[in-house]
Amino acid sequence: MLELMLCSLLTIFPDYLYRRYGQGKRIGREITLYSMWYELRWGISACLMLTISLITMIFYFHPSTQSVTAVFRTVTILPETVGRVDDVYVGINDKVAAGAPLFRLDDSQQKAAVETARRQIAELEAEAAVAMTELATADGQIQEAQGALQLAETEYEMKAQLLAKDAVARREVERLANTIESRKGSLAAAIAKKQTLEAKISALLPAQKASAEAALAQAQVELDKTIVRAGIAGTVQQFTLRTGDVVNTMLRPAGILVPEAAGRGTLIAGFGQIEAQVIKRGMIAEATCIGRPFTIIPLVVTDVQDVIAAGQLRPTDQLIDVRSISTPGTLTVFLQPLFEGGLDGIPPGSSCIANAYTNNHDVLADPNIGTLRWLFLHVVDAVGLVHAMLLRMQALLLPVQTLVLSGH
User: Fold this and answer.
1) Hey, which residues does 68 pair with through a beta bridge?
2) Rounded distance, CA 324 to CA 320, Å?
3) What 3-state DSSP class applies to 93?
4) CA geometry: angle at 303 spanning 258 and 324, to 5°?
5) What is the pLDDT of residue 367?
6) Which pTM does this prediction carry?
């Protein structure tokens, strides 16, 4: 209606002035309700054409959308293991800090695993103490074997000298030689036993203790998993968990955690695909939201998604008919407040109406620009005022439309 009134001032009104003062025709006589089309046909035709052109120019170069939302991400409260709830620490709508405990599952099995790992470590430490005692025993056995070998060698040398004088039987000397070999074997066995104990103390037992400590750490991790904590600060919603409930990681979530800053810094808008060549990063925009009526929020386009979500394809066991996904999708645009605190007071998830405005100031500042292009771009920038006025009218009518005309 505003565009039609503006265009009529440039078309119908001059045509009427010509008919009235140039041709002397008056309303009610020559210009009646029945002859209006014939008398003002040039002005009416030009008005319709100019109105359609103006509306097209406004909505193309200064796009508008009602698909604007303060989208926010929620975090599902889920344990990392299946279990029965033993204790609940929070309630619905409670605000929690990052790392705060939410609830605890039955941990009897995990505690038993931790205690078993601790007992195993204590057992290995005791075995290490026993091995040290056995090492001392092995040292004594080596000294004993060395003494017995030395005694056998001394007796053998003495009997060998007596054998040269035929003072002792040859069989006795041979027996002493065999005894020396036996004593050498006993000494080697004692030395090998000591080396085995040293290897056990220096390598085997530390490795077994490290494995036991790793098992203890793993058991402690499993025990810690029984206490479900908040991964981020926020508000607990839809949390109806009670002691005795069974929570499943796949089928039975415990609730939802809404992060503190979720949906409070960015608006996400869906513009028509035809605006893909117009909307650019850095464009100025405005929005009015149901959650904050009678307020115009200055915004800036911070990012434009380079794909249309409606065309996404997921591999399945059936061929996709393109006609089934031919419904036009929207161009996703991210809007952030131009000034700090611009979105304060707008609840996450609010629905809004937004306009984006084309700005040709840099192009118009070029000294080499042509006259026709200069005039056209001036017109484009000027008609943005019409859309800004429409947005402000919508901001005034939005509460009435929502509370009165919606029928709720």
Assistant:
1) 269, 352
2) 8
3) coil
4) 80
5) 84
6) 0.69
- Amino acid 209 reads K
Does residue 346 contact residue 289 with C-beta atoms inside 8 Å?
yes
By CB neighbour count within 10 A (0-12 exposed, 13-18 middle, 19+ buried), where does 219 fall?
buried
In this prediction, residue 322 carries a pLDDT of 77
Fold of domain 63-72+263-405: Elongation Factor Tu (Ef-tu); domain 3 (2.40.30)
Helix ranges restricted to H, 239-370: 361-364
Burial (CB count within 10 angstroms: exposed 0-12, middle 13-18, buried 19+), residue 85:
buried
Q: What confidence tens digit (pLDDT) does each residue in 321-337 have? A: 777 776 788 889 999 99
263 burial via Cβ count (<10 Å: 0-12, 13-18, 19+)? buried
396, 294 Cβ separation under 8 angstroms: yes
Query: Which residue ranges make up each domain of the chain?
Result: 1-61, 63-72+263-405, 75-106+226-259, 108-224
Res 52: pLDDT: 85
Contacts of 380 (CB under 8 A, 6+ apart): 57, 61, 358, 360
User: Of 8-12, 218-222, 237-241, which one has max mean pLDDT?
Assistant: 218-222
Burial zone of 163 (CB within 10 Å; 0-12 exposed, 13-18 middle, 19+ buried): middle
For the stretch 370-399, pLDDT in tens is 888 888 888 888 888 888 888 888 888 888
Fold of 75-106+226-259: OB fold (Dihydrolipoamide Acetyltransferase, E2P) (2.40.50)
Q: Give tens-digit pLDDT for 114-158.
A: 999 899 988 888 888 888 887 788 778 778 777 777 777 777 666
Please check the confidence at residue 408 and state whether its pLDDT lies above 60: no
Report the DSSP beta bridge partners of residue 281: none
Q: Give the full edge-to-edge strand order of the sheet including 227-229.
A: 227-229, 101-105, 83-88, 246-247
Q: Report the candidate in 179, 170, 130, 172 with the shortest Cα–Cα distance to residue 150.
A: 179
Token couple for 154? 């001394």
- What pLDDT sits at residue 163? 57
Percent of the chain with pLDDT over 70: 90
- Going by their DSSP bridges, the two strands 351-357 and 64-69 should be labelled as antiparallel
